[in-house]
Amino acid sequence: MIIIDKELVSFLVTVVFSFLIGLEVKSYREYFHSRFEFGSIRTFTFTGILGFVFFKINIYFYILGFFSLTLFFLLFYYFKLKENKASIVTFLAISITYTFGPLSIIKPLWFIALIFVILIFGLNVKKFYPKITQKINLNEIETFAKMVLLSAVILPLLPKTKLSYIELSPFKIWLIVVVISAISYIGYILQKYVFSNKGYFLTGLAGGAYSSTATTVVLASKASVNCLNSITAGIIGATAIMYFRLIIIAYIFNHQVATKILIPYIVLGIFGILISIFYLKKDLTTQKSDYVDNNPLELKTAFLFAFLFIAMIVITKFIHAHFGNLGLEILSFIIGFTDIDPFILSLLTGKFTITISLIAKLIFIATASNNFLKAGYSYFFSKKRCIISTVWLIVFGVINLILAYI
């Protein structure tokens, strides 16, 4: 068996990655017609080798080499400033290249490979600046940063002691909010940045991952002049995806309930997709859709969801205590005409003295009335033009009611 020396592997990795970075920098200059020349392909390759050799000799040699490289760049940069041709990007790239040698020795291969990939992407991202700035709502970045703060910093600090009446801790309440917000946000990102120009059908599918109700309203409004078959497909597809979304949420928070709704909702989801495809094939238009620029990750939405979630637990406990199972069934039907997520999550996570079968039944009822609500939206927002999608949503609602009482 041939044993390859580890230092030889580290050296070869350093040479190859340094050479490739040099090539990428050369491409970067050619693309942007940069006159700021600081090193060629050979310079980057030799810089990587020097970093490797100096680090192997002595750490002080390595540090001295970096200071020498920096000093040389400062002199170069000074003269280029006079010509208004200065740029620091190349220096940053060559400085990172200088670290490849030590990294290949003291870190695993995936680490230096990851830095290499990020550096390549960093050099290429400028090409996509115009597209990025046109499509990204800058408020989303701020909102996402706040959500990261609340989920990665604040969440671990919340007390894990259960609140007496609802029998859930503040930590778990906010964790539920974070999970649901993440699922909704993924659907929103898919709809806005992946499927925004892929037609009403794909936009409807992506929209169903975060809000089938909002997607129905938007698509039905688009149909107020002419209800294309692709819009009908998108509306039905959004509800089909809703079933898969509810299965995922149920499996995350209550595996037993998930097994109860799994088969019916998989069948309904697939059935809805097939119906959507049927109407999609009848549409010969290539009209593009508009995404819904309504960020579900806004903080006020998250706090409202947390409030509604707690309120649903309290209301559900009260109704069950005073009106029994029949009261819960009526409540679930009424809730379906609003936002069903907080109610369904209260059923999945709340410590109620009700059976798993009853929880599944209440979910079926809430989903049924929610489908009736979307049917009304489809009918009125399209100015009575989306009759087909309206009928199918009513059918889905009736099937849900049948599932609840069989």
Protein architecture, described:
The protein is mainly alpha-helical and 406 residues long. It folds into two domains: 6-130, no CATH class; 137-405, no CATH class. Helices cover 78% and strands 0% of the residues. It is built from 17 helices and no strands. It is elongated. It starts with 5 loop residues before the first helix and ends with a helix. The model has no long low-confidence stretch (mean pLDDT 83).
Number of E-type strands: 0
Give the overall average pLDDT: 83
Q: Whole-Å distance between the termini?
A: 67 Å
Structural class: mainly alpha
List unreliable stretches of 5+ residues. Answer: none
Shape: elongated
Order of helices and strands: HHHHHHHHHHHHHHHHH
Q: How many separate domains make up the residues?
A: 2
The proportion of strand residues reads under 5%
| Helical amount | over 70%
Largest sheet: none
Radius of gyration: 29 Å
Number of DSSP helical runs: 17
